[in-house]
Specification:
Layout: E1 12-14, E2 17-19, E3 26-30, H1 38-50, E4 55-59, H2 63-73, E5 80-84, H3 88-96, E6 101-104, H4 112-125, E7 129-134, H5 140-146, H6 151-167, E8 173-178, H7 182-195, E9 201-202, H8 210-226, E10 232-234, H9 241-254, E11 263-266, H10 277-287, E12 296-300, H11 306-309, E13 315-320, E14 323-328, E15 331-337, H12 341-356, H13 382-387
Parallel strand pairs: 3-4, 3-10, 4-5, 5-6, 6-7, 7-8, 9-10, 11-12, 12-13
Antiparallel strand pairs: 1-2, 13-14, 14-15
Helix pairs in contact: 1-2, 2-3, 3-4, 5-6, 6-7, 7-8, 8-9, 10-12
The chain binds iron/sulfur cluster.
């Protein structure tokens, strides 16, 4: 398999976390609590941190929300971005309250004078701005020129905003181009990626409920990442934002770009399956939800074929006809009563986690960044950056 060659982009930092410039692809999410409810927002961000979220965005729809930012920031570890629409004064208030970055749509923030005021404030504070272009809110002249919200129109809007901010000598930028359908989103990012070296934030907006949202995001974000496009991402789901983070890491893992937490492989099940596979898989997934070590775990439905079929797993269990087996790298190391399947597996995983630390077993890929074309990859993970 050819490694993914990531497009070289400029590096920016968001609250100490690098985005672009060969840094590991970061996973973002957005809180859905009312931002002025500081306790609820902090609690949600802490859950996101535990799930591995690198950067979080909070909505700042009014002065109360902007005012709450400083108190939120003081209680969480990951960078907090402020999401602003319509009112440039809120962007300035959020920056002054300590936001680590701003997400604005310069098309709806007012005229050039207001955008300049936001850029001046962001420069003073040393924070980046994400230009968030949305197919649903393109400028009227662009809609007319392209006869609708086409990928070309979205890119023209993005380039216009990039030029505007650069004309104010503001360069600390990243860009997103979101549409609610996969093909437009992918086409727009491809076009933009060919026109700029700014880091790109990937996402399919209004991606939908868990099932359809996961499919759309995996396709849209996955296609782009596979082509080397994208420096940071958010999977939008109408769900607990923690699910967005899990989904983001699954997409990165599936492409071999970055790993976090155990990978659970279950056999697809067949007529030989003699255990309640689905339930056991769910229980293991729940029990290991907070784990960061990238251990490959197999849960197989029969003791005869299971261990051999899961040769690449670090550890695994298989069960049937009253017997459970524990195996490592496809070799059975222990037999036990089938009822102990879950307990034996979890004890083994915990022991391996302790032995190897959060980076996981040797030979397994930890968070990494595949070959970047023109730059030496920065393999430092966001977790490392927080530690230093
Ligand atoms: Fe069937 Fe066993 Fe293979 Fe699972 S591991 S699919 S139960 S043969």
């Amino acid at each position: 398999m050819n490694p993914i060659r990531r497009k070289a982009t400029r590096a920016i930092t968001v609250g100490g976390v690098a985005v672009g410039g060969g840094a590991p692809v970061t996973v973002q999410s957005m809180t859905n609590t009312p931002t002025p409810d500081v306790a609820a927002t902090v609690a949600q961000i802490r859950r996101l941190e535990a799930a591995g979220c690198d950067i979080v965005r909070v909505a700042v729809p009014d002065a109360d929300a902007a005012g709450a930012l400083a108190r939120i920031k003081a209680q969480v570890r990951i960078p907090v971005l402020a999401d602003i629409h319509f009112d440039h004064r809120l962007a300035i208030a959020a920056a002054r309250a300590g936001a680590d970055g701003l997400r604005i749509n310069p098309g709806n923030i007012g005229g050039a004078r207001k955008v300049r005021a936001v850029a001046d404030c962001a420069r003073e504070r040393g924070i980046p701005i994400r230009i968030g272009v949305n197919a649903g809110s393109l400028e009227k002249d662009i809609l007319k020129k392209y006869n609708g919200a086409t990928p070309e129109g979205m890119v023209e809007s993005a380039l216009r905003h990039i030029d505007l901010l650069r004309s104010f000598d503001f360069h600390d930028l990243k860009v997103s181009l979101k549409a609610s359908d996969v093909s437009r989103t992918v086409a727009a990012y491809r076009l933009l990626s060919a026109r700029t070296d700014l880091p790109l934030h990937l996402g399919v907006t209004e991606a939908g409920t868990l099932f359809s949202g996961l499919v759309k995001s995996a396709l849209g974000i996955g296609m782009l990442l596979a082509e080397g496009i994208g420096d940071t991402l958010r999977v939008s789901l109408t769900r607990d934002p923690v699910e967005e983070v899990r989904a983001g890491f699954e997409i990165l893992r599936a492409l071999g770009i970055r790993q976090r937490g155990p990978e659970i492989i279950a056999c697809p099940s067949c007529g030989r399956t003699r255990i309640d596979l689905f339930r056991i898989v769910e229980q293991v997934e729940q029990a290991l939800a907070g784990s960061a070590a990238p251990i490959r775990i197999a849960i197989m439905g029969c003791v005869v074929n299971g261990p051999g079929e899961a040769r690449e797993a670090d550890i695994g269990v298989a069960g049937g006809d009253g017997v459970g087996v524990l195996f490592r790298k496809g070799r059975v190391v222990k037999k036990f009563p089938e009822g102990q399947l879950l307990d034996v597996l979890l004890a083994e995983v915990r022991a391996m986690e302790e032995q190897l630390g959060p980076k996981g077993p040797k030979g397994l890929k930890g968070p990494k960044d595949p070959n970047t074309k023109h730059q030496k990859p920065n393999t430092e993970t966001p977790e490392d950056m927080h530690r230093r």
